[in-house]
Amino acid sequence: MQIFFQQVINGLSLGSIYALLALGYTMVYGIIKLINFAHGDIYMLGAFWGYYVINVWHFNFMLALLSAMVVCGICGVIIEYLAYRPLRHSPRITALITAIGVSFFLENGMAYLFGSNARDFPQVVKQVNYDIGGVRISNIQLEILITSCVLMLILQLIIKRTKMGRAMRAVSVDNAAAELVGVDLNRTISFTFALGSSMAGAAGVMIGLYYNSIDPLMGLTPGIKAFVAAVVGGIGSVPGASLGGFLIGLLETLVQSIGLSAYKDAVVYVVLIVILLIRPMGIFGKNVKEKV
Amino acid sequence: MKRKMIKKIMGFGTAMLVAGMLAGCSTAKTASKGNAAGKTIKIGVNMELSGAAAGYGNSQKQGIQMAVDQINKNGGINVDGKKKKVSLIIRDNKTSTSTSASVAAQLVNKDKVNAIVGPATTNAGTAQIPNITKAAVPSVSPSATDPNYTLQKSGKVQPYVFRACYQNNFQGSTAAKFAYTNLKAKRVAVLADNSSDYGTGLAKAFKKAYKGKIAASQYFQEGDKDFNAILTSFKNKKIDAIYAPGYYSEIGLIVKQARQAGINVPIIGSDGMADPKLAQIAGNENATNVYYTTPFSTRVANQNGTAKKFMKAFKEQYNEEAPTFSALAYDSVYMIKKAIENEKSADSAKIAEGLTKIKNFDGVTGKITIDSKHNANKPIVVETLSNGKVSAATEIK
């Protein structure tokens, strides 16, 4: 039983990272129907930013986290402005391929500039393990869980309660109509990218602290898994992405705990295929008919 | 009309280009076999400088560069009484098998190199074999460890393929012996890197040679960061040790997460761990009771003149402790130098012949003898880490 709860804790801390990343995918998809494959690499940028400011400017963890969110938000806006905005009216596949291109650019650009070695992330928070009935949980795991839940709540509030959030929802339903009633399309899309990317930035810094190892390719696999999480939860749905993230994290942990670690990635992709076959709109997704 | 013309010309140009490239791929025919030496001795480097294995590739590049700089500073290689300088041609294979094959073709056909150092990984290394064999140019890989790497499908040895490192069977069985005899571990969990021939090969060799019980056997992928689930599942298996063959980037994390999960049994690994970065990633307080098999020990190195000089020069040039990969790459270059001096010729076919005859060569990573299967035989040691520092080195016979 202890082992079981321990595995649940492991799964939740892994899942909260996927959830934070999945939010970015889902919001961008909801608004401009683009799967932003460069999203995982923004998470890598966040981790490197955290590494830099903690080592060079001696930021504390919170400050590093917040500054990484701001920097990644700006990066997201720049990427949108330079790479995706000129393609707004081209076929979707063009934007998709561009996203993959941006992803390669960020990965190899960082590898070129800073080398592709794994680096050790500065340990600014001393790890303390708590033992609750034989289940070990560290303060860092708790911090990740709490921070990601708080960020998800804030995000939900922004989307539901603010004017910008209303504009985002309007654009995601029908961007032409939203523009007609006075929503500034470009500003709304930029804002969405900023929000999603800042979540990724926060995830990057937390992962850096948790695993103590960052490298330019670190965003690749988590990025794809978070994409699966977003699809499982229902792409376009914010609560769906959070739930999907936790589900994928728990699933991966479960598969490894029963001794099938060699297949852990395969299982995640099988889930993607099954969901796409049985319930393509995901758990929380609405089945919206596309107008022709 | 005009536009159509331009299009036609462009199309023709592209066709010509493609044709040119294809022509470049075919083997150049020369009168004698292989690439003859010119004014300088050309050494090509087919290396993983970007992509997944770039960390190892770049370490090796440093070792190669340092070896060549030293040789040139001392006037070059003595070829039958005449000193010839070495020129390096470094090309990136991006950790991709197809790029490795085309890089090899470029090196042997266009650059006309006399010998190749690299690639770092078995997969990329195997991909270059057809091209270098056609051109009769030998290659020395610093770190391709798969037992079959130097062999043809029929079991005969590949005439132009050499390596400067151990092959997996030797290292895996040594670790098994060490775990059973020295550590008295009766139940071992194996946790291996599933994404490289290196990890799976070592795991296989270990399992075959280990006399105790394999209590659990799990795999991870290169680039994985979370091992908590696997390690938690080891907890109720009553294990005495963990055998984790792989590279420092992942094993460092395994060591860290195992210790944090309260698993304090010995962790045994392979020479992919022999890097100061392991302790940095794991954290010094966690890197205790950690063992790995390695040809190159900084402690043993202090008793070996060649290695001592190398360590000092490396630290001066790059301002860090020399990783194993740099040492192996450094040895690869000097093995080629030795072959040239012995054969009194820098023609590529002659170098291949010379490499087969290397015996008791005084390398940084020990006394190297090339056996009939082109493997590098040299003594093996098990290093012990305590608090992130190497505290003991045991020679295993």
Description of the structure:
The complex is a heterodimer of chains A (292) and B (397). Chain A is 73% helix and 3% strand. Chain A has 292 residues and is mainly alpha-helical. Chain A has a two-stranded antiparallel ribbon with strand order 1-2. In chain A, strand 1 (129-132) and strand 2 form a beta hairpin. In chain A, helix 9 packs parallel to helix 11 (264-278). The model of chain A has no long low-confidence stretch (mean pLDDT 87). Chain B has helices at residues 2-25, 54-73, 97-110, 122-135, 168-182, 197-209, 228-234, 248-260, 276-282, 298-301, 305-318, 324-343, 348-356, and strands at 41-47, 77-79, 82-84, 86-92, 115-117, 139-141, 161-163, 187-193, 213-220, 241-243, 267-269, 290-294, 361-363, 366-370, 376-377, 380-386, 389-396. Chain B folds into two domains: 41-166 and 303-379, Rossmann fold (3-Layer(aba) Sandwich), CATH 3.40.50.2300; 168-294, Response regulator (Rossmann fold, 3-Layer(aba) Sandwich), CATH 3.40.50. Helices cover 44% and strands 20% of the residues of chain B. Chain B has 13 helices and 17 strands. In chain B, the strands form four sheets. Chain B has a seven-stranded mixed β-sheet with strand order 9-8-10-11-12-16-17, sandwiched between helices. A five-stranded parallel β-sheet of chain B has the order 4-1-5-6-7, sandwiched between helices. Chain B has a three-stranded antiparallel β-sheet with strand order 13-14-15, covered by helices on one side. Chain B has 397 residues and is an alpha/beta fold. In chain B, helix 3 packs parallel to helix 4, helix 5 packs across helix 6 and helix 8 (248-260) runs parallel beside helix 9 (276-282). Classes of the chains: A mainly alpha (292), B alpha/beta (397). Chains A and B meet through helix 1, helix 4 and helix 10 of A and helix 2, strand 9, helix 7, helix 8 and helix 9 of B.
